[in-house]
Amino acid sequence: MGKLYVIGIGPGGIDHMSLKAQKAIEESNIIVGYTKYIEMVKPLLQNKEIFSTGMRGEENRCKEALDLSKDNVVSLISTGDSGIYGMAGLILEMRKDEEVHVIPGITASSAAGSVVGAPLMHDNCNISLSDLMTPYEDIKKRVKLAAEGDFVISLYNPKSKGRPHYLKECIEIIKEYRKEDIPVAVVKNALREGEEATIVTLKDFNDEIVDMFSIVIVGNSKSYIKDGRFITPRGYNIRGEE
Amino acid sequence: MGKLYVIGIGPGGIDHMSLKAQKAIEESNIIVGYTKYIEMVKPLLQNKEIFSTGMRGEENRCKEALDLSKDNVVSLISTGDSGIYGMAGLILEMRKDEEVHVIPGITASSAAGSVVGAPLMHDNCNISLSDLMTPYEDIKKRVKLAAEGDFVISLYNPKSKGRPHYLKECIEIIKEYRKEDIPVAVVKNALREGEEATIVTLKDFNDEIVDMFSIVIVGNSKSYIKDGRFITPRGYNIRGEE
């Protein structure tokens, strides 16, 4: 009887994975994942059977991992947290009686936040701008309500070729509710090779520097920039005693 | 010249920390943190100077860590992600010219989510019900807008003696926007000693099992329970090809 670990490896590379994730990979004889993610954890993969796949066909990848897990210890890996826009949901939806363990990781907004300072210190939300599975009207509605609620907003999948204008439009929606001097961070490849981070104000934001490997973080009404770092205070009264 | 690492140790214990966090602690000669957090990483603390403090007085703890970091390598530790309701914000607010590095960790909603299944698979938000630094009216407004936007909602600090009714009231607000059969999870001490998890429906939710060590996760309109796991689909069309 085998089992399946659904692992979030964090931002990429070994350093920001949990020990638990590393141990699960060690225990596994088969590793399944998108080619680029497999590459990121290569030092851990000596003597493992590898099933790497392209980005599309997630359902097939999940089916394969579930089938293999009947007689093997299998790790299905993806970046970030396996439970946030990761593979854990689809696996549990498709699961019949296979033994499945979800192992969390550091999600992309946490990784990106740490690179630019402490933007996520107060109530915050993650919104994906991908319309592959969600109507764009619903996405825009969420952006509007999050802006109105003064959440710090992390935008996942902010841009792709098929929808080049979504990000710009969503930033315009946010501008209706936020002052133009609050910070916006664009972090590309956070905490992995090729990391690039930019902090600007909402007013000066230009979506041209954003690509599909970026996370965009928009501050709340109290966020500010100090010494090049993006800071959101924990509350509305920093002098208050906790 | 010293430096300060602001470290999120994740849910607690060594297993869910990142290797990066472990290395930073190893490199440090002084460790600062709340007594209970120090206890969680004790195996890493041989030959370290320890400054453990009570829960209150966070500003003093930060000041101490910053002062010590002028001539020492200091790790200031807290659970979860240091950048989400953690210590990174206050440190960067108070920082003068000290060298500060923020090291992220697995935040409590990710940890709690992994215990009950995959509740955070789609757009989601974190809201703290603590009113120490934020007016309760603002908190309720956020809960309302998050409910209206169909976000999966993770409630941090859901209950304390000083505000026993907030959670119940916020759940009532959510009920105005969600069907009563969607799942709600209460996870106490996620991924650490004393872990307890319960999944109920919004209709059957009873706030009596919730305490200050719990995270409460409320599903979106598509969330459901299958074989005892709390699943939120990735989108509104699971058959769509990505």
UniProtKB/TrEMBL annotation, chains A, B:
One of its GO terms (molecular function) is methyltransferase activity. It comes from the Bacteria. The keyword Iron does not apply. Keywords: Cobalamin biosynthesis, Methyltransferase, S-adenosyl-L-methionine, Transferase. Residues 3-204 form the Tetrapyrrole methylase domain. The keyword Methyltransferase applies. One of its GO terms (biological process) is methylation. This is Cobalt-precorrin 3 C17-methyltransferase.
